[in-house]
Specification:
CATH topology: Alpha-Beta Plaits
Number of domains: 1
Radius of gyration: 11 Å
Order of helices and strands: EHEEHE
Number of helices: 2
Number of strands: 4
CATH architecture: 2-Layer Sandwich
Strand content: 25-35%
Bound molecules: iron/sulfur cluster
Strand order of the largest sheet: 1-4
Structural class: alpha+beta
CATH class: Alpha Beta
């Protein structure tokens, strides 16, 4: 099982991931990115969003 997550200690709220992939990301109440879906983790938009993050805050983690 894989889990998409944003490290909010790293996120600077630039909005890049949200602009590229609004299926998986939206702003939270503090203006940081939050994950809104764990579906379709293979999508090209998600890959682009992960690569776009300037602080490498987005990860797909394996959980057992
Ligand atoms: S691209 Fe990275 S720093 Fe920018 S909002 Fe998304 S998670 Fe935060």
């Amino acid at each position: 099982m894989e889990r998409l997550c944003v490290d909010k200690d790293k996120c600077i709220g630039c909005g890049a991931c949200i602009g590229i992939d609004n299926e998986h990301f939206d702003f939270d109440d503090e203006g940081l990115s939050e994950v809104i879906s764990q579906d379709n983790l293979e999508s090209d938009d998600l890959k682009d969003a992960i690569e776009s993050c300037p602080v490498n805050a987005i990860k797909i983690e394996s959980e057992n």
